[in-house]
């Protein structure tokens, strides 16, 4: 009897869930949750081509300032995000950047502001399959530093602000009671989203860079939320974070070349 090793079996092959094969993607991959936001990213890429559209995973590949870059939607939550990350890494991804929407807990943060995560609480079950619960979930320091510097520079004249802090990654959107939210706020958690901690964990174990930037969709401390109509300020934040991430990639690549 030979027990299957899923990672070894799928490495370098066409991937089952994302329907992509080696060569289909760049080493840099942006990760929105919503498949529709893959199309939004593609508009900023030169020669963006739809490579696959399978389940919740919609992928485009193109270039930005000559750098091959892809975008793959992950769907909502850590399980599907983890699958997308593992399969993208299997076919050559070296840097994964979550570009998301997130609810703020810091009362200073307004809808449309950008939030960059320096670590994330693991209020989810996926990462527990990989590491002990006490193991930290943190992004790649070098890329996150470049992301912070680029965001601050690009947003300097904007009405939207950039915040940096600790996030929480949760499993249950409607399970977050007022008491639970207050416990996170007391810990000075900046925001809540649903994918980062699992992505950080996989990035650490697979030796790839992972970072996360989110647009503020609402503020749970101030009860400033928009659930029943189009959130125009959030849509603006999506465009801003896409532009910031693409420019960060360009600067990161330039710095890498300068070191050689």
From TrEMBL:
<protein>
    <recommendedName>
        <fullName>Uridine phosphorylase</fullName>
        <ecNumber>2.4.2.3</ecNumber>
    </recommendedName>
</protein>
<keyword id="KW-0328">Glycosyltransferase</keyword>
<keyword id="KW-0808">Transferase</keyword>
<dbReference type="GO" id="GO:0005829">
    <property type="term" value="C:cytosol"/>
</dbReference>
<comment type="similarity">
    <text>Belongs to the PNP/UDP phosphorylase family.</text>
</comment>
<dbReference type="InterPro" id="IPR035994">
    <property type="entry name" value="Nucleoside_phosphorylase_sf"/>
</dbReference>
<dbReference type="InterPro" id="IPR018016">
    <property type="entry name" value="Nucleoside_phosphorylase_CS"/>
</dbReference>
<dbReference type="GO" id="GO:0004850">
    <property type="term" value="F:uridine phosphorylase activity"/>
</dbReference>
<dbReference type="Pfam" id="PF01048">
    <property type="entry name" value="PNP_UDP_1"/>
</dbReference>
<dbReference type="InterPro" id="IPR000845">
    <property type="entry name" value="Nucleoside_phosphorylase_d"/>
</dbReference>
<dbReference type="GO" id="GO:0009164">
    <property type="term" value="P:nucleoside catabolic process"/>
</dbReference>
<feature type="domain" description="Nucleoside phosphorylase">
    <location>
        <begin position="28"/>
        <end position="233"/>
    </location>
</feature>
